[in-house]
Amino acid sequence: MNYLEALKYIHNIIDPKNYFEIGCRHGYSVSLAKCRSIGVDPDFEIKSQISAETRFFRQTSDSFFESKDVKEILSGPIDFSFIDGMHLVEYALRDFSNIERNSHGGGIIAVDDVLPSDIAYATRERKTQIWTGDVYRLVYILKEYRPDLHITVYDIEKKGLALISNLDPGNRILEESYDEIFENINRRKWGVLSAEEIRRDFRPVDTERLAHDLKEIANRRVLLRTNSPVIDGVSLYIDLLKKSILNEIYLDDELRILYLKSCIHGNDVFDPEVLHDIRNKKRDAFNQLVQSRSVGQFFERNIENAGFNHSMMGRTRLDNLHHAMDVLLENSIPGDFIECGVWRGGGCIFMAGYLRAHGATDRCVIVADSFEGLPEPTNANDAGLDLSKAKFPQLAVSLETVMENFSAYGLEGSNIVYLKGWFKDTLSDTRTEKIALLRMDGDLYESTIDILHALYDKVSPGGVVIIDDYNAIPACKKAVEDYFISRNETVPQLMQIDWTGVWFRKPSQPEKVPAS
Fold first, then answer.
1. Is residue 228 over pLDDT 80?
2. Which of 14, 125, 148, 388 is least surrounded by Cβ atoms within 10 Å, i.e. has the fewest?
3. Could you read off the pLDDT of 149-172 as tens digits, one per residue?
């Protein structure tokens, strides 16, 4: 998929009220708009047929925002925008800040050139026919200074595309920190040596997920429109369920507890004003907590800060789980949903809530765990990887606690099946005949390969398999590879979720390993 196809997709699904573009040049992208639009380019030469009401401004974007009132021209805040202007990060940063300030909370900003397929394209001076400049550094900057934003990088051919939502028009952090950021740009901070490094850091998402993500954004936009006469109750419930499972609503209170804990240990001095206004008084820490929860990591990468969320997934992996269930229901893939390794049960709670909200009463949710933490490593491939209860008691959550968590959400029921015990002892006895969704979070080589041996043959063709630890724990990756080698099959095509997770749909005809 190229960037024009992606933009057309966005316009069709989001159906924006208005559109704003920086770098309209020949008008190929702005011509996709079906709403009132603005194109800004100091040297535009429109060659494409423009069908919507569009005003073009022959000036730089900085000059435009200094001299024009974009909200007046568009009769309201910017709804959807596309940044494809000067291919230098400081320009893209100013463009983003100016657009966000003139947008609304449900607005969307797309940024071109963030995923160069060759690092030669990413120079600050143009030396190649394809040129992205160092716009990719904008993603690093936003992730560091604005962890509240929802940023997804899509694997659009040659140049990539970032889609940014959850905007905050009143946020001035980027403007207030501009001098500091610009100084760091000149010091080559956020610069990388290879396109592979950028891909490793951004974890680009396959364009297959674009439609689902856009529908998610569209649903959130509906909820933000105060004048909307109809609110989709299912979407509202699913969105709130995610926020509850990840404890996104009460991150201030989590930070308050971490602050009090630090005071008790003598690492901080108690101040009632800090406790009262923790988000602003500890802004850097709050932003770090937001980012940690988004990507599914412990605050400060310390398991002692496990927090109060009911799932370790983070928002990206939870959104992926949502997407997987949408795919399964839309394609009528038969079978139950099972998660192996559930911690506090949040993933299975989300499955149960999703099924109930969609009236899918014919599927079970199987909650499989030892409820005693991870086993001590016994397989040679797990040597040195001791995640057992004796070493990490935070990973051991009792069956009673998980059941109570289901009850707290009002999601207990006859379709919830608990399977207690080590995977090697219990999974082979799973009564389900067909599995539509298999979510694996076993960490260890032994646990991962036990799951596959016991359950993979029960996964329906077209069913979804999610592997939580694939890129984080080499032993987990090796178990997957060894399992498919044992079947004389190639590993199905994996799609990246985030820094650790991958997923795939089970092929109806597995690809055999070619004879050597």
1. no
2. 125
3. 889 999 998 899 999 998 999 998
Residue 21's DSSP bridge partners are 39, 82
Residues noted as catalytic = 319
Edge-first strand order for the sheet with 416-420 is: 416-420, 365-369, 336-340, 435-440, 459-467, 502-505, 495-496
Q: How far apart are the C-alpha atoms of 148 and 145, rounded to whole Å?
A: 9
Distance CA 52, CA 30 (A): 9
User: Do residues 189 and 80 touch, judged by C-beta distance below 8 A?
Assistant: no
Helix (H, G, I), strand (E, B) or coil at 413: coil
d(CA 110, CA 82): 5
Spatial distance between the Cα atoms of 232 and 94, rounded to a whole number of angstroms? 36
What is the pairing mode between strands 416-420 and 365-369?
Answer: parallel
Calpha distance 135→122 (Å, rounded): 8
Q: Which two tokens stand for residue 288?
A: 């770090």
- More confident position, 482 or 234: 482
Residue 381, token pair as written in the block = 């491939």
